[in-house]
Amino acid sequence: MIKLVDIEKYVRNGLRKSWILNQVNLEIREGEFVTIMGPSGAGKTTLLNILGMLDSASGGEYHFYDEPAHKLSERKRHDTHKHYMGFVFQAYHLIDDLTVYENIETPLLYRGIKSKDRKSMVADILDRFSIVAKKDLFPEQLSGGQQQLVGVARAVIHKPRLLLADEPTGNLHTKQGDQIMELFRELNDDGVTIIQVTHSERNASFGTRIIELVDGNVRNDEIIRERATQDVAE
Amino acid sequence: MIKKNLTLALRVLRRHPGFTFISLLGLSISVATSLLIFLWARSEYQTDRFHAAGDRIVKLYRGFPEGTGNIQVNFSTPYLLADFLVEQIPEVEKAVETSSFDKRMLEVDGQQFREQGAYADPSFFDVFSFQIIEGDLAGAHANPSSIVLSESLAQRLFGTNWRRRAIGSSVRIDDAHDFTVEAVYEDIPEKSSLQAEYILNIAYRTKVEEWVLDWGNNVIKTYLLLSPSADIEEVEEKLNRVHAMSESYSEGEFLMIQPFPEAYLYSSIENGKIAGGRIDYLRLFIGAGLFLLLIACINFVNLSTARSSRRAREVGVRKVIGARRSTLLKQFMAEAALLTGISIGLAVLLAELVLPVTRRITDSPIAINYTEPVFWLAIAGLFLLTTILSGIYPALVLSSFRPVQILKGNLISNWNDALFRKGLVVVQFCLSLLLIIGAFVVQRQLSFIQNKNLGLDRENILFIEMDDLVTKKADLIQEELRKAPGIATVTKTSHAPIDVQASTNGLRWPGKPEEHAHTDFSLLWTEPNFTETYKVDMVAGRFYRPGTLSDTNAIVLNETAARIIGKDNILEQPVELWGKQRQVIGIVQDFHLRSLFEQIPPLVIINDPEMTWSMAIRTRAGETATAIAALEETFAEVMPGYTLEYQFLDERYETMYAAEQTTRRLSGIFAVLAILISCMGLLGLTAYTAEQRTREIGIRKVLGATIADIFLLLNRDFTRLLAFAFLLAVPLAIYFLRHWLERFAYHVELNAWVFLFSAGLILVVATLTVSYHSLRAATANPADSLKRE
Fold it and tell me: Which residues of A touch B2 (CB under 8 A)?
């Protein structure tokens, strides 16, 4: 699904370049649940953003489903991102002025899905995440765990193939965090590929593979469990 | 999607009441103002545009070079010229000779009415689209003593069944002249600049005042109807060729025509060229209205972009979950559109509310007519203009945020963006300053006019235009009034001496140079106590003496006239007026004979009570009420049943500057609104900057900054902006105001005080505004602001 070759990312600091990612080589197959770990400043979030096509690398190759994403136009990258990916944030990032229902519905609006289909899709996911009762509330009326639940619902409503999560439980209690992780595992069991960034060993244990990033480099790459589904291609 | 955008926009507006309030208030006030100006402009543009013959009707002007090198153009021609032109030029289909007069007394069945009318050839109704609804024009043409009444006047004179009674009835005018009603016309609409309650056949005037038929007397206002295929310039050329053959022609004279519908807005003719008129004021206020709208839109732009940091996160999230920039652009435009929409609703209410006041200030029949498509077009236009002006920039800025930067958590404060905002604040205050400086200068010029020593004392004078009835009894009235309490003196003049209309170039003197062949000397007929009543000073010689027979051959000049004649021994100088030898016996100090737009012209004062049609009554200071009572009593006694109309001379003087008075009031209102709206914006803006800098302020205070230090820090920035605005506004103001002031022959000078005072005013108001938030920020406890991070 994903193949990174010599990916690098730097920012110019006056005349000096300072490297955030350096020579990252990585291959992620469909159905994996990958955890990226590492100390602060190791480049975890940057890597996640590049994978999510929110940011582009300074050099190297990024193949997504064998397509050279690094050669795509901004527009094409946006389309790929929109079509295949969902994003979960540490700070939930729900839209304050929208209700739970509307927050979840928004991605469907941007994908031009018909009103009738939208209704049934949102109803399904509200039901599945057990948040039907909350659908007319505004984000500020929810607890952190509930907000993140909505955040995940919003990220997967359009059935993405790849779910990217940046410290999804960072602002949550352990119990709430576990709930989200359980949800991730279920999604993964259903065939969604997941890449999460976290500091928590406990969260990592829910996944199938741990990649350790130090100073912009892959230090360690370890499969801890067999992935749930096999590649279609394989 | 539109519905979703709108509900969202509504929530956003509700969530930020401060922002919403400031934007709404500014936008509704300025949209209401723009709407009213639009309606006013429209009513001005519609004036005189309803005649079926339209541009084929032209006004006929006569021009001639004055001795001073200036070209004088008047709307007055000889009576006989009109028909001569119709005969000679095929393109001139018809001519309407008209002449106006003051209100006259109409009498039917012993009942008297003072009404405004005019003389005109009955073809008046063929050329202009005023409908005859009873009787016919054939009768009016055939009968030289015909009168044609307006519907409402016919009703007043003949009661509700006027339709049966009016035609063929007799109307007595000024107790001397009998006219027969031949027709009745539909009331003239307000959008006509020609207004008359009745039209007397001008043939009657040529009968009773035969001198009107003289080729040398230019007293008729002539309108021509051109053939549909006629070309204005060609016709003008032919007119001049034919005019040169006529008896009235004298060297240098020329004729000029102007389409009648244009004449209302372009009425001022300077040096032989049409040079604007009401259109200038219209443009001025359309400009001022746009200024206000711009200032209010800038508020929206500034507040939207200033709080963009709050919206940035939302933009980032939306982009991550799949929004395109164009989608977000639409969303933000929808917010601007909603706000504009609400403002327009409020603006219409506001406009309705102040409509009566506006009508009074502009003296124009403005109305909001909801069934008119034009009204809705104007609303749609204002909606689009305001939405685009206020929405486009914030939408572009907000939608341009890149998600990665925002979601990393460090909110970028865009330096360019802040600079742009500062630029807009400068523009806002520059516009406000322009309006304030403008208002001040107009105010100063008007008070200059009001306080100007005219060379005569216009205060405490009651002024009566005498009709034939009063003229007959004038001696008796004058005698009675002199004895009455509260009245000092009474005199009669031909015109109000502040508005002298008559003039002649028939004054000759030995050695009169060729350059003064066409120089017009204004003419004022009066009686010996003129100088006493009007308090006019003599600079040489003496004025006329009562009962001195030799004075019939005497003449009095003003200083300007004496300068033109230019003799050292001006007294004893023989001059010739209309072929009669006269002796100059005195020179009066120059006083203003016309409005301050014009230089004081040379004046000849003639002693002849027979030629006077107005009476001036000087009351004793502080006894005006007594004097008025005495005046009314005298009239009741001498002329029972007569409706007396009088005015105060100083009020009449001020009506000469009606357009300028309107300008003064409007510019004052605009200036106040501009400051108000700008400062509201400033208030909102400082709220955001203070909030953004809370942490910085906290740190500075921990490091030992005093409240005063912080206060100065926050106010310094904005004072600098104001200085910029001032530097921009001054040259612009000088440019525009010079142009306006130069129209007055007598005007105030632009001095530094005007600018400094305006700047000072806005500085104080704006500083107070900014200080509200600066003080709050400066006095806040740093522990609170730092704890949050």
Answer: none
Residues B442-481, buried b or exposed e (16+ Cβ, 10 A)?
A: bbbbbeebeeeebbbbbebbbbbbbbebbbeebeebbebb
pLDDT, tens digit (0-9, with 9 covering 90-100), for B467-516: 888 888 888 888 888 888 888 899 989 888 888 877 777 788 888 887 77
Q: Report pLDDT digits (tens) over B584-643.
A: 888 999 999 888 888 888 899 988 888 888 999 999 888 888 889 989 989 888 888 788
Question: Which residue of A89, A102, A111 is in closest CB contact with B322?
Answer: A111
User: Does A54 contact B403 at a Cβ distance shorter than 8 Å?
Assistant: yes
Distance CA B601, CA B559 (A): 10
Q: Does A206 touch chain B (CB under 8 A)?
A: no
CB contacts, 8 Å: B410 with chain A: none
CB distance B771 to B475 below 8 Å: no
pLDDT band at residue B567 using 50, 70 and 90 as cut-offs? confident
B438 at A interface, C-beta within 8 A: no
Average pLDDT, chain A: 89
Residues in chain A within 8 Å Cβ distance of B314:
95-97
What mean pLDDT do residues B148-161 have?
Answer: 93
Count Cα neighbours of B149 within 13 Å in the Cβ-side half-sphere.
Answer: 27
Distance CA(B605)–CA(B521), nearest Å, equals: 10
pLDDT for the residue A230:
56
For residue A231, what pLDDT band results from cuts at 50, 70 and 90? low
CB atoms inside a 10 Å sphere around CB B282: 17
Report the pLDDT averaged over residues B173-197.
Answer: 92
Measure the CA–CA gap between B214 and B212, rounded to whole angstroms: 5
Contact A107 B324 (CB under 8 A): no
Per DSSP, B120 falls in state E
DSSP assignment string, A144-206: HHHHHHHHHHHHHTT--SEEEEESTTTTS-HHHHHHHHHHHHHHHHTT-EEEEE-S-HHHHTT
CA angle (A221, A226, A230) in 5-degree steps: 110
Taking the C-alpha atoms of residue B41 and residue B189, their distance in angstroms, rounded to an integer, is 17
Mean pLDDT of B278-287: 87
In terms of Cα–Cα distance, which of B237, B149, B194 is closest to B57?
Answer: B194
d(Cα B466, Cα B645) in Å, to the nearest integer? 9
Instruction: Give the one of A89, A110, A154 whose C-beta lies nearest to B327's C-beta.
Output: A110
The dihedral sign for the CA sequence A94, A97, A100, A101? negative
Contact at 8 Å (CB) between A196 and A36? Answer: yes
ipTM of the complex: 0.85
Q: Measured between CB atoms, which of B15, B322, B408 is closest to A82?
A: B322
DSSP helix/strand/coil, B213 = helix
State the average pLDDT for chain B: 87
Residue A107, chain B, CB below 8 Å: the answer is: yes
Helix and strand counts by DSSP (H, E) for chain B: 26, 28
- At residue A116, does pLDDT exceed 90? yes
The pLDDT confidence band at residue B211, using thresholds 50, 70 and 90, is: confident
**Is residue B214 over pLDDT 80?**
yes
Cα B760 to chain center, whole Å?
29
Q: What is the rounded CA–CA span in Å between residue A20 and residue A217?
A: 9
CB A181 within 8 A of CB A203: yes
Measured CA to CA, the distance from residue B128 to residue B260 in angstroms comes to 10
The verdict on B4 touching A (C-beta cutoff 8 Å) is yes
CB-CB neighbors (< 8 A) of A52 in chain B: 320
Instruction: Report CB contact under 8 Å: B321, A94.
Output: no
**Which of B12, B14, B320 is the best residue to mutate to test the A interface, defined by the most A CB atoms within 10 Å of its own CB?**
B320
Q: Which of residues 27-86 of A touch B (CB under 8 A)?
A: 45, 49, 52, 54-55, 78, 81-82, 86
